[in-house]
Amino acid sequence: MLKFIIENNEKYQPGLSIDCVIFGFHDNQLKVLLIKVPHNERWSLPGGFIPIDQDIDTAAVTILNERTGVEGVFLRQFATFGKIKRNDNHFGNEVLEYLNISPEKGKWLTQRFVTIGYYALVDFLKILPTRRNEGQIIEWIDHKEVPELILDHKEILDKALNTLRIELNLMPIGYNLLPEKFTIPELQKLYETILDKKLDRRNFLRKITNIGILTKLDEKKNNVAHKAPNLYSFDKEKYEEVLKNGLNQGW
Amino acid sequence: MLKFIIENNEKYQPGLSIDCVIFGFHDNQLKVLLIKVPHNERWSLPGGFIPIDQDIDTAAVTILNERTGVEGVFLRQFATFGKIKRNDNHFGNEVLEYLNISPEKGKWLTQRFVTIGYYALVDFLKILPTRRNEGQIIEWIDHKEVPELILDHKEILDKALNTLRIELNLMPIGYNLLPEKFTIPELQKLYETILDKKLDRRNFLRKITNIGILTKLDEKKNNVAHKAPNLYSFDKEKYEEVLKNGLNQGW
C-alpha cells in the first residue's frame, strides 16, 4: 500500500498526512489502538496519506479503515502537528530501504510532512481491528503501557488524551461505552479512568444528575449482596440535545 | 511577495497554508482584522504560506507579521480546513492573471490547498496593523458587519468565533482587554459581546467571583453620579494559575 502511494504520489496531497488516535474503553480500562510497523519493529498510530480527491475528514475515515479495518467510528479532528523536525529523513530512508525504493524515487516520502490528528473514543470490545498487511500487528494497548512510538506519535497521543479530558467538561460521554443499564459508580469509573484520578462520590452524583441526561430506573443491580445500587440509563433525546449544545454550565 | 513565493515555491510547504483570525475587542466592540486583496477587491483573512524551514506555529507568526505588521500576539491553532472544493482553480487563476504569471509557472498556486487556522484575541486599540503592499487595505471590521470573504474564509472565521466562545468556559479572559481597574459590569459586557447574548447580572457576579481571579479594590468608579460601582483588578498570579490549569469547574 505504502509502496503504491509513493509510486503514485500525484494522487495524494504532498507533505500532509493524517494520524488517528483511537481510544478504547471497557470495564475501567482505557486502551489505544496501535500498529507495529514491519520495517523497524516499532509501534505507531494508524495513519496515512490524503487522497487528492477526498476532503480531509473523509480521508481520515479512509485511512483508518485501510490500516485497521475499523469503520463506523466518529473521528474528530483535534490538532495539526507541524514541527520541522517531526519527521527526520532517517525514518523515511529506513522505510524506502525496506520497500526497496531508491531515495530518488522515494523523495515524496522523505519531504517534510505535517500531520493532522483525529481521535475517537469507542468500546474496544465492539471494534475489532483486522490486519491489512502480512507482518503487521494491530493491538489495543493499555494507555499507561504504551511502548516507544515512531516520530512524534507519543506527543500526538498525549495531546489527544488531553483533548479528550477537556471534552469531558464540554460534552456528555458514556453512551455506547457502558451497558444499557448502569450504576452511577460505573459511570463515575468511566470518568475516573479517562481523567486518571479519583473523584468525590457526592460531588460527581450531584453534577452528573444536574446535567439531566440520566433516567433513574425502577431496578437495582441484583448481583450485589446488600445495599444494591440503583440502575440508570441515558435519556437518548436529552443526551443528543446536550451533545449538540454542550454541557455549558457556562455563562 | 506572493509572486516571490510562487517563483520560489520550493522554499515553501506545498499545498498547505495558514490563515489567521485576529479578533479585536475594545469598549464593547468585537472586531476582526481583514485585508482587502488588490486583485479582485474582495476581503480575506490575513494568511500565507509556510516556509519549509519553519515550524507551523512559527510560520503563523511570520505570516501574520508579513501581511499586517502585527507582532507580539499569542496565536492559538484551532482547526485545519481541508475540503477539496475549498480553493477552486478560478480563484488561483485570477491571482495568476493579476500577477502576470502563466498557468504553467503558477501551478504551485492552483494545486489543492489545505489551510491551518490560528486565532487570537487582542485589544484593537493596542494593535496597529500596517499596510505591507500598495493597493492593499487592512481594517478592523465589526464582526457583525463582515463583508463577503474569499474562499472558505467565512467558515474559518465562524469556527474561530465558536472556538473563542467555548474557550470562555475553559479559560479566564479579560487581561489586556480591559483597563487595569474595571467594574464587574464592564467585565460582564466583555463576555456578552463575545457570546452575543445578555447574561444574568447576579449569576455572572457569582460565577466570576468564584473563580478567584479578581481583587476587589478599595475604590469606586467616580464618574458615575450615584451608586458608584466597585472597581476590581485581576490578581495576576491567580489569573496565570487558572490560565494554566483551566477553569475546570469540572469533575
If you had to describe this structure to a student in words, what would you say it looks like?
The structure is a homodimer of 251-residue chains. With 251 residues, chain A is an alpha+beta fold. The first copy, chain A, has 2 domains: 2-167, Nucleoside Triphosphate Pyrophosphohydrolase; 184-245, Winged helix-like DNA-binding domain superfamily/Winged helix DNA-binding domain (Arc Repressor Mutant, subunit A, Orthogonal Bundle). Chain A has helices at 2-7, 56-68, 89-99, 107-110, 153-167, 184-195, 201-211, 236-245, and strands at residues 12-26, 29-37, 42-44, 47-51, 76-81, 114-123, 137-142, 214-220, 230-234. In chain A, strands 1, 2, 3, 4, 5, 6 and 7 form a 7-stranded mixed β-sheet that branches. In chain A, strands 8-9 form a two-stranded antiparallel sheet. At the A-B interface, strand 1, helix 2, strand 5 and helix 7 of A face strand 1, helix 2 and strand 5 of B. Chains A, B: Pfam families: NUDIX, WHD_NrtR. Chains A, B: Residues 15-165 form the Nudix hydrolase domain. Chains A, B: This is NUDIX hydrolase. Chains A, B: Keywords: Hydrolase.
Keywords:
251 residues, Nucleoside Triphosphate Pyrophosphohydrolase, hydrolase activity (chains A, B), Arc Repressor Mutant, subunit A, NUDIX_hydrolase_dom (chains A, B), 8 helices, hydrolase (chains A, B), alpha+beta, WHD_NrtR (chains A, B), homodimer, NUDIX hydrolase (chains A, B)
Order of helices and strands of chain A: HEEEEHEHHEEHHHEEH
Taking the alpha carbons of the first and last residues of chain A, their distance comes to 50 Å
Main beta sheet of chain A, described? 7 strands, mixed
Question: In CATH terms, what is the fold-level topology of the largest domain in chain A?
Answer: Nucleoside Triphosphate Pyrophosphohydrolase
For this entry, what is the oligomeric state of its chains? homodimer
The CATH architecture of the largest domain in chain A is Alpha-Beta Complex
- Number of helices, where a helix is a run of at least 4 consecutive DSSP H or I residues of chain A: 8
Total of domains of chain A: 2
- Largest interface (C-beta under 8 Å): A-B, 36 and 35 residues
What percent of residues of chain A are in strands? 25-35%
CATH superfamily of the largest domain in chain A: Nucleoside Triphosphate Pyrophosphohydrolase
Q: Can you count the beta strands of chain A?
A: 9
